[in-house]
C-alpha cells in the first residue's frame, strides 16, 4: 500500500508547483522558490517564520497593504451570498456597483468596464475592442497595433505579441500587424536628445510609424503611461498629449495600459491624470483589488461604446467565464473604499517623495547609474560604468548576487539591472529607511566582492 509521506510544504511546492518565469536552476540549486505563509502591511512572512519587507507590493499589486481583514470579510460575505452567475447575460450587485464606482474615479469619460481576471486578459480585451470597433466603424482593414520597445503588456498570446521581450524562438509567429517604436527614455535616449526633447521625438516617431504602416491599416497605439518594464522612465505629459493628438489625427485608438500604474501607484489615482489625457481604452488590474482577488478590466468611454449602441444586434466578440466575478468585485469595492477613506493615494504620493529622497543617496555607489520614478513607482539602475552608462544584462551575475543579498537581508523586490522600489501605499518612513539601508549594504558588498565586473 502506498505510504502517505508528509513532506514539508517547500518540498511539495518544488515538486508540484510550476513557478512562473523562474529558471529551473533557481529552484533546484539556489533556493529561489520561497513559500510564504502570512503577511501584514508591508511585511511578508515565509513558512519558516522569516520576515521580509515587500519592496514591490507582490508584483506592483498590493497597494492597500497586506492583511486587510475588511477585504477578507467582504470576500467571505459575497461568496456566501452569491458566488457566481454567467457573465454572458447577467451580472451581480457588486459588479454593477464597481462599474459605477470606476466611472466616478476614472479619467475623463471612461465609464464602461469590460471585466476580466487580470492584466493580460485586460490587454487581450482592449486589442479586440480596438479591432472590432474599427471594423464596425467601417474600417475592417485597420487591424495593426503599434506598441513600444521595452514595454510589457502580458504573456497571453495577443498581449505577448505587444510585449517587447516576446520570445520569437518559442512562441513566434506572433499576432500579425504589431510593430514596436522607441519609448521615452531620458537616461539613454534613442535619439541622443536630452529631457523633454527626447520624449517629443519619441511621440513624433509614433506618427511616423502610423504614416509608414498606412493610417488606413492602424487600429490602435498602446503604451503604459509610465512603463515599469522599460525601466520606469517618466515622460513629459507632452508626450502623451502628442500621442492623443496624433491618434485623433489618424483615426487611431489610444490604449493606456495602467495595469501597474493605476490605483495610486504613481501618486495619483491614475497616471494618465498627470498626463492630462483621456485614452480611448484603459486597461486596469493588479491594484484594482490590491491582489485580494484576481480581477482586471478594459474600460472605454461613450465614443467607443456608441458603436455598439448604433449597431445593437452586434455584440462584442469576446467572452470570459469569470469576467465581472462578484467575489472579485466585492474585493475591489472594499479595496477602493479603503484607498479613499485612508487617503492612501495622497499618502503614497508623500511616501514616494520620501522614498525618492532616500534612494537619491544611493547615487554615491559606483554601480548606481540612475535613480528615477514617480510616487511609489521608483527604481535604481545599476551599471557597469557610470560615466559611459554601460548597461548590465538584466540577468547578469552582478544583478543576481545583488538580488540574493537583498533577499537574505530581508527585502523582496525585482532585481535585474533595474532594481524596483514599489512598496504598498501604507509603507512607513521607518520601513522605507530599512529598505534603503538593505539596498545600500547589499550594493556595498556586491561592489566589493565583484569589483572586477565594474569598469572604470
Ligand atoms: N500590462 C502591464 C503594464 C503589466 O505590467 C502587466 C503585468 O505585469 C500586464 C499587463 C499583465 O498582467 P497579468 O500578469 O495580470 O496578466
Written account of the structure:
The protein is of the alpha/beta class. The protein has 16 helices and 15 strands. The protein folds into two domains: 9-67 and 343-453, Aspartate Aminotransferase, domain 1, CATH 3.90.1150.10; 70-341, Type I PLP-dependent aspartate aminotransferase-like (Major domain) (Aspartate Aminotransferase, domain 2, 3-Layer(aba) Sandwich), CATH 3.40.640. The chain is 40% helix and 16% strand. Strands 4-10-9-8-7-5-6 form a seven-stranded mixed beta sheet, sandwiched between helices. The longest helix is centred in the last third of the chain and has 21 residues, at 429-449. The radius of gyration is 22 Å and the shape is globular. It starts with 8 loop residues before the first helix and ends in a 7-residue tail after the last helix. Pyridoxal-5'-phosphate (PLP) binds next to helix 6.
Helical residue percent band: 40-55%
Q: What gyration radius follows from the Cα positions, in whole Å? A: 22 Å
Shape: globular
**Biggest sheet: strand arrangement:** 4-10-9-8-7-5-6
The total strand number stands at 15
Number of domains: 2
CATH level 3 topology of the largest domain: Aspartate Aminotransferase, domain 2
- List the ions, cofactors and other small molecules found in this model: pyridoxal-5'-phosphate
Average pLDDT, all residues: 96
What are the segments in which pLDDT stays under 50 over at least 5 consecutive residues? Answer: none
- The CATH homologous superfamily of the largest domain corresponds to Type I PLP-dependent aspartate aminotransferase-like (Major domain)
The span between the termini is: 65 Å
| Number of continuous helical runs | 16
CATH uppermost class of the largest domain: Alpha Beta
